[in-house]
Design a protein that fits this description.
Layout: H1 5-19, H2 26-33, H3 37-40, H4 47-62, H5 74-90, H6 95-99, H7 109-120, H8 126-148, H9 154-165, H10 169-204, H11 207-220
Length: 226
């Protein structure tokens, strides 16, 4: 079998699902492919480049809602975009860890520009739209990180916590609602809170707050792609 970037990526993603981020290495990947490590570096200059390519491939395969449908509002688009991004990260073991800290590839900027233009054309100023997209992306990565980091004894820990909260009526009620909702619904609740807050800010007109948000976003930069 000819060794090329597609073959390497396919093997790397399969290995990620098998061993996770902590044990993923170019040495192990080379062994699985039956080649020496330097052969990998003809296609990816270092491990970071390989990880970035794996992240990009995961999003290419599984992140389906990158642009709005005709007539879709900006709120609906951003909600569906966040859901699609979450599904893509959940599609692979440690998908959120692989993605965390990544920056958009220059080749992705055309899509980011198209997303931003779509939201702006629906009435959201560019700086606020960018800040909201970054916030939703980081929220999504954080939620998936928590889901994928659950320890094997997570159910037992939750039962112990719920038992300890039983004598505290507010916590008991809140925990019960949280458990009943499940991760999908809780994710949607968080997204809706962010979108509703952004819509209220737009309708109420809070220029000082918008400037603060936009300035913070410029200083930090877009750490998550969606």
């Amino acid at each position: 079998m000819k060794l090329d970037s597609k073959v390497i990526l396919e093997a790397a993603l399969a290995l990620l699902d098998e061993v996770g981020m902590d044990k993923l290495s170019t040495r192990l990947l080379a062994e699985r492919l039956g080649v020496q490590q330097p052969a990998l570096y003809w296609h990816f200059k270092n491990k970071r480049a390989l990880l970035d390519a794996m992240n990009g491939e995961i999003l290419r395969r599984a992140h389906e809602r990158r642009l709005p449908l005709p007539g879709e509002s900006w709120e609906t688009f951003l909600r569906e975009n966040a859901r699609s991004f979450r599904r893509a990260l959940l599609a692979r073991r440690d998908g959120a860890r692989l993605h965390a800290g990544s920056e958009p590839d220059p080749g992705d900027l055309e899509m980011v520009e198209a997303q931003l233009a779509a939201v702006v054309s629906r009435g959201v100023p560019a700086t606020q739209a960018m800040a909201l997209m970054i916030a939703l992306g980081r929220y999504t990565v954080g939620c998936v990180l928590e889901e994928q980091a659950a320890p094997p004894d997570a159910a037992e820990r939750q039962q112990a916590l719920d038992a300890a909260a039983a004598s505290r009526p507010l916590l008991a009620e809140a925990f019960a609602s949280y458990r009943d909702a499940g991760p999908d619904a809780m994710f949607d609740i968080g997204v809706d809170l962010m979108l509703e807050g952004a819509k209220a800010r737009l309708e109420g007109g809070a220029p000082a707050a918008r400037r603060t948000t936009a300035g913070a976003a410029r200083r930090r930069g877009p750490a998550a792609r969606s």
